[in-house]
Automatic annotation (TrEMBL):
Domain Class II aldolase/adducin N-terminal residue range list: 12-197
Superkingdom, natural source: Bacteria
Name assigned to this protein: Class II aldolase/adducin family protein
InterPro entries assigned: Aldolase_II/adducin_N (IPR001303), Aldolase_II/adducin_N_sf (IPR036409)
Amino acid sequence: MATQADAQELAALRALSASIGRSPHLTQAAGGNTSLKAGDTLWIKASGTWLKDALVDDIMVPVAMAPLLKAVEQRDRAADQPQGFTIAALNPRGLRPSIETTVHALMPQRVVLHVHCVDTISLAVQADGEAEVAKRLDGIEWAYVPYFRPGLPLARGIAEKLRPGVDVLILGNHGLVVAAETVAGAELLLRRIRSLLARPARATAAPDLDALAALAGDSGYRLPADVEAHAVALDPESRRMAQAGSLYPDHVIFLGQGSVVAKPGEAVADVVARLGTSPAAILFPGAGVLMRSDASAGADAMQRCLADVTARIDIAARLNYLTASENDELVNWDAEQYRQKLNAAGG
Ligand SMILES: [Zn+2]
């Protein structure tokens, strides 16, 4: 840490990060990340850690920014492995920086917040998302970046869209980035953009817990951690959207491709027999959601996220889903396997 002012800003960023991490409408599980530039060093959230732990755990990793940016510019695949750019002397725990480190390095502002805001995602999965956002962000310096896999591809996509003055990015099928010179400024901008993009969620009935208990039988499937998660199985429109595929990367990482919906009359055992595998979550139309007994806390957070996102999507909108190859590259990606390993370990 170069100066006392930097140290104060880093402390402020940790407090803001913890607060962002506690809001399921802004971040879920190990998703989302925050950063501060201090001289040539980028302090960024460590991969696999949760923003909500920012005050109780040392989750910020120092990265040498200039060589990382050079790698992005040269399309060097080293940029896909930001751990190669950590400053070892300042990283005693040997943490890996976020797989989205390049997003932060590319923004020129000192403080960058990247969140998986459910209002933003609900717009950013619509085929008309860019036009819908444009109506809401009039007067803001923002840019729309279509979907790319996080890492070098997303960094290249952002580099193409960045122009001087831009401090808000809407990432297609992904989320929101805001940037400012101070932590306080970034917090204000995040609040402003959130309120401009806010959308009401469709109301749903309560889950049928007795029916779910009967459907689970002795399968070991359990209720989701959050009661809000059931909405995606209860609302027919949300269910239709979920069943049609994967809408954003962390869904694939934590829950697998798309969503499994039980057919009429099927209990958990029937679904598992039909698929030949036990999905992390099963949607039972009209009843609610059941999670596999060993589903991680991250899986629970993402199942709730799916309910929160789909409930906000315009039911008349055409949606952009991740393609088969985009799904595959997420599942088979080394950096994500590392993050999942930390997640499974409870990180
Ligand atoms: Zn992200």
